[in-house]
Write a structure and sequence with these properties.
By secondary structure, this protein is of the alpha+beta class. The protein has one domain: 2-Layer Sandwich (Beta-Lactamase). The chain has 4 helices and 5 strands. It has a 5-stranded antiparallel β-sheet with strand order 2-1-5-4-3, with helices on both faces. A hairpin with a 3-residue loop joins strand 3 (about 70-75) and strand 4 (about 80-90). The chain is globular, with a radius of gyration of 14 Å.
C-alpha cells in the first residue's frame, strides 16, 4: 500500500479508532493500534488468513448481488466494529473502531481507499 490511511482514519473515527492494518497476499502489517487494544501475534495471522479467504469469494458475491464491485465487509462485535476494505487483488485495509461510537461507516470505508476523504 503506497499511502498511509491512518491520519484520515483518525480524522473520521477520532478516539474510537482501535486498530488499522494493511495486508497483501504475503502478510498483514499493523499500522496503528490504540494503547488499550492488544492483539496477539497468532490473532493477526488468523485475521490475515480470513481477509484473504474473503477475497477468494469476491467474484461469487459480485455475481450473486449484481450491484457492482465488492468493496468492503463489516463485522460488528460487542466491543468493536471491524471493516475489511479490499483495495486490490488480495490486498486491502482492516480497521476496527469502538462499537457504539458515532462513526460514519461509509466515510470510514471511503477513507480506507487511497482516494478517500
Amino acid at each position: 500500500m503506497s499511502f498511509d490511511p491512518v491520519p484520515t482514519l483518525r480524522d473520521v473515527a477520532g478516539e474510537a479508532l482501535r486498530a488499522v492494518a494493511a495486508y497483501d497476499r504475503d502478510g498483514l502489517e499493523l499500522r496503528y493500534e490504540r494503547d488499550d487494544v492488544s492483539q496477539k501475534e497468532t490473532a493477526i495471522d488468523r485475521i490475515h488468513e480470513e481477509l484473504v479467504l474473503q477475497e477468494l469469494g469476491r467474484e461469487y458475491l459480485e455475481g450473486l448481488f449484481s450491484v457492482g464491485r465488492w468493496h468492503c465487509t463489516m463485522h460488528r462485535f460487542d466491543r468493536a466494529t471491524c471493516v475489511h476494505y479490499a483495495e486490490g487483488e488480495f490486498s486491502g485495509v482492516f480497521v476496527s473502531v469502538d462499537s457504539g461510537a458515532n462513526v460514519d461507516l461509509e466515510e470510514l470505508a471511503d477513507a480506507c481507499h487511497s482516494g478517500g476523504t
